[in-house]
């Protein structure tokens, strides 16, 4: 019996997933989006909000049809194992945000983290709880070595959240993405599994 390389094990683990992993926290859970009106309306409320989209790499949604298209894209991405885009659901199973692992590189055992949360939930520690669920799964279940994140350098609250999670700012890519006609830099942050586990052991 030959032992598989870590990268092969990660690729196999992703391929073996039947659906979105269901991750349960104290106040929220991460689940896959459903192709129904309730989830679509909630995602439109999220990604149609100008406050949420201020630092996003696309303009706010203009109609719920875009949310239906997003759900289809998310489910396609999961089927192709290009990304795992969970919705963040509250205790009533209502969608209040989004949390994503994407740009998987099994050979180098890394992925990128993204998230968004409805403004009504800001300042309550919800984004941190959701990101912690995703990172625990990425490092402890999937076996990643590193997780990246990219933010608009003006997004101080997102930087603060990532730093609390243990991410370290590693540099800035100049003028790396457009929102409409506005070009912005991208602050690059990274989190290593050893730092994540050390931080978790202190809490």
TrEMBL record:
Pfam families: Acetyltransf_3 (PF13302). It comes from the Bacteria. InterPro entries: Acyl_CoA_acyltransferase, GNAT_dom, Ribosomal_N-acetyltransferase. Residues 28-190 form the N-acetyltransferase domain. Transmembrane segments: none annotated. SUPFAM superfamilies: Acyl-CoA N-acyltransferases (Nat). This is GNAT family N-acetyltransferase. It comes from Lysobacter gummosus.
């Amino acid at each position: 019996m030959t032992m598989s390389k870590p990268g092969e094990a990660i690729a196999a683990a992703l391929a073996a997933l039947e659906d979105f992993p269901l991750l349960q926290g104290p106040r929220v859970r991460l689940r896959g989006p459903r192709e129904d009106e309730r989830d679509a309306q909630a995602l439109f409320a999220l990604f149609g909000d100008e406050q949420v989209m201020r630092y996003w790499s696309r303009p706010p949604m203009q109609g719920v049809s875009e949310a239906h298209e997003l759900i289809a894209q998310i489910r396609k991405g999961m089927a192709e194992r290009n990304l795992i885009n969970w919705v963040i659901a509250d205790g009533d199973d209502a969608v209040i945000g989004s949390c994503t692992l994407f740009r998987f590189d099994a050979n180098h055992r890394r992925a990128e983290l993204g998230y968004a949360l409805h403004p009504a939930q800001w300042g309550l520690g919800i984004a941190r709880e959701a990101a912690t669920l995703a990172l625990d799964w990425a490092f402890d279940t999937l076996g990643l070595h590193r997780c990246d994140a990219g933010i608009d350098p003006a997004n101080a609250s997102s930087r603060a959240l990532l730093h609390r999670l243990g991410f370290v700012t590693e540099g800035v890519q100049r003028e790396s993405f457009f929102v409409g006609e506005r070009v912005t830099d991208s602050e690059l942050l990274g989190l290593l599994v050893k730092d994540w586990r050390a931080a978790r052991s202190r809490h």
